Amino acid sequence: MSIDRRDFLKLSAASAAAFASEKLALADDQDALVTPNAKQARPITRDEFLLRQENAVRYMVEAGINAILLTGGTSLQYFAGTQWGISERLFAMVLPARGGIAWVTPAFEEGRAREQIKFGDDIRIWQEDESPYKVVAAILKDRGVVSGTIGIEETVRFAFADGVAKAAPSLKVVSADPVTARCRRVKSAHEIELMRLANQITLKAFEIALKSLRPGMTQTELGGKIGAAHQEMGARGGALVLYAEHSASPHGTIAPQKLKEGDV
């Protein structure tokens, strides 16, 4: 018994068909890359990061926000190129409407922080027996922000936002969405180029992996092949693979699955 890739796709749900079709159109014909690879990506430049920060400052002025606070996550990476996971200890960037960027880091993370920080040289550490929120309040005071509003990026933990609010009670804590979300929802031509390349790599990875389909293949095996195909093109990526009735489960299942002819 064998499963022809074309027959499999005909039997697959629309979502699977979106990932791979006979032609597997990677993009518009004019833009399609024969062999997409992450090395073809042009990194975001320093000037682009500076433009994002300038836009944020302009939007802060328009929204009446005196400063914004960002912790580890995609917004921090978007505005400063800093990759930092969410921790129980506050690591944050303060971007004021007036004055330079400042950073708050746990003392034991100072070395790693300095490796990551590309903008601003005001880096303030806090020890385990100190309040990081008072450090944030001191930064704001140094920049003349003793009253007014501070915007909190949407993914900042409540404990951090609450700590800042208590350390600077004269400030009004508001959402930073009028700044951060407004910046991020408008994509530059370069960002669209990177997104298109990411899509091309994803589709090519599915094309490569789906050629290996065979009866008895587990969902883990197919998922591993999809991940390996991404790696072949220099990217990190994967897939949640589900067969048959399990494909109705949006977040998967721990039940073992093996591919059978006719499965979605």
Structure notes:
By secondary structure, the protein is of the alpha/beta class. 42% of the residues lie in helices and 11% in strands. The protein contains 10 helices and 6 strands, in the order H-H-H-E-H-E-E-H-E-H-E-H-E-H-H-H. The chain has a 6-stranded mixed beta sheet, sandwiched between helices. Helix 3 runs antiparallel to helix 8, helix 6 packs across helix 7 and helix 9 (189-210) crosses helix 10 (219-232). The longest helix is centred in the C-terminal third of the chain and has 22 residues, at 189-210. It is elongated. The two termini are 17 Å apart. The model is unreliable at 5-33 (pLDDT under 50).
Q: What distinguishing features does this structure have?
A:
10 helices; alpha/beta; 6-stranded mixed β-sheet; single chain; elongated; 264 residues
Shape: elongated
The tally of strands reads 6
Distance between the termini: 17 Å
Strand order within the widest beta sheet = 4-3-2-1-5-6
Q: Unreliable stretches, pLDDT < 50, 5 or more residues?
A: 5-33
Helix content: 40-55%
Number of contiguous helices: 10
Largest sheet: 6 strands, mixed
Give the rounded overall mean pLDDT: 89
Order of secondary-structure elements = HHHEHEEHEHEHEHHH
What percent of residues are in strands? 5-15%
Given the helix and strand composition, which structural class is it? alpha/beta
Please tell me how large the radius of gyration is. 24 Å
